[in-house]
Design goal:
The chain is built from twelve helices and nine strands. By secondary structure, it is of the alpha+beta class.
Length: 291
């Protein structure tokens, strides 16, 4: 069963949409933002455990009641099911307004996705609770209070984003990738002959980090530049298939994801000094995998 959000209450302003909703899902779901901007969500339900995440460095989101999570535009999250309805307050901010107010662009948030699904910030939690209280029991000028609280949330997010940046500068240098991130990269490359070789962007998403973070820390962990490592794995596969003498160069080119056999031949010669057919003849002469 796909996610079924039940909107309990909603109030829209020119730059922000505030919703109180209850959501159910019974299988692994990939959550693609319904709004094109930035979203801040607070857990309200108290009868289930934290939500497990399948595709980010952070393994859990919303560990307790009133905990807060944040999603940049166009960023999807894979969530394992929970056994009870998830009730939440959601504030969706128009993208240009959010970035103009916080003076932080999306690329900054994309570098810290693991730290965004479960934000530890009491002031932010309190501001979200102020909005929730006005939605549930509106008081005088409740719309003005909600709009003002949403602006204060942006100020707090701007401060939080800057703290993330400073912490990253202090700790990221020389840290390398986590073992589980390296394992995911190797698993994805191992599957490349069946589903195609990944881009650096895809590998970064598999690890739940930005491309820049991946490139810096993969080199720290392995001594390789990530794109050269992928190219080396691709070359190794090409050599193995050429040595078997059972697969045509055209098919090898297609399986390795090259645009054409000619492009494959050029790339192979640049890396080995031989054309694919020259390498195949040499391999057969040396009785490598040849009958």
């Amino acid at each position: 069963m796909a996610m079924q959000p039940l909107i309990e209450k909603e109030i829209a302003f020119p730059k922000v949409l505030v919703q109180l909703a209850t959501i159910r899902w019974s299988a692994m779901e990939e959550i693609v933002p319904r709004h094109s901007g930035y979203q801040i969500c607070q857990r309200l339900s108290d009868d289930h455990s934290a939500i497990r995440i399948g595709n980010l460095a952070a393994r859990e989101a919303f560990p307790r009641v009133r905990s807060v999570g944040f999603l940049p535009p166009d960023f999807s999250v894979q969530l394992y099911p929970v056994d009870r309805p998830f009730r939440a307050l959601n504030c969706a901010f128009e993208r240009a307004f959010f970035e103009e107010t916080t003076q932080i662009q999306q690329r900054h948030w994309d570098e810290h996705t693991g730290a965004l699904v479960s934000i530890k910030d009491r002031r932010l939690e309190t501001m979200m609770q102020e909005i929730y209280a006005e939605l549930v029991k509106p008081g005088f000028a409740h719309d003005l209070l909600i709009e003002a609280a949403s602006t204060m949330i942006l100020v707090e997010m701007a401060r939080y984003g800057r703290r993330l940046g400073k912490a990253n500068e202090q700790s990221a240098a020389g840290r390398g990738l986590a073992p589980w991130q390296l394992r995911r990269i190797h698993e994805r490359l191992k599957a490349s002959l069946e589903i195609g070789y990944p881009s650096v962007g895809e590998l970064a998403q598999v690890c739940g980090i930005s491309q820049g973070h991946l490139m810096r820390n993969f080199k720290v962990s392995t001594g390789w530049q990530i794109h050269k490592y992928v190219a080396e794995k691709r070359l190794k596969s090409a050599k193995q298939m050429l040595a078997e003498d059972q697969i045509s160069v055209k098919e090898i080119s297609a399986r390795l994801g090259f645009q054409s056999p000619a492009y494959f031949a050029t790339a192979f010669r640049r890396m080995t000094g031989k054309t694919p057919m020259e390498y195949r003849r040499q391999a057969c002469t040396m009785d490598i995998h040849c009958a």
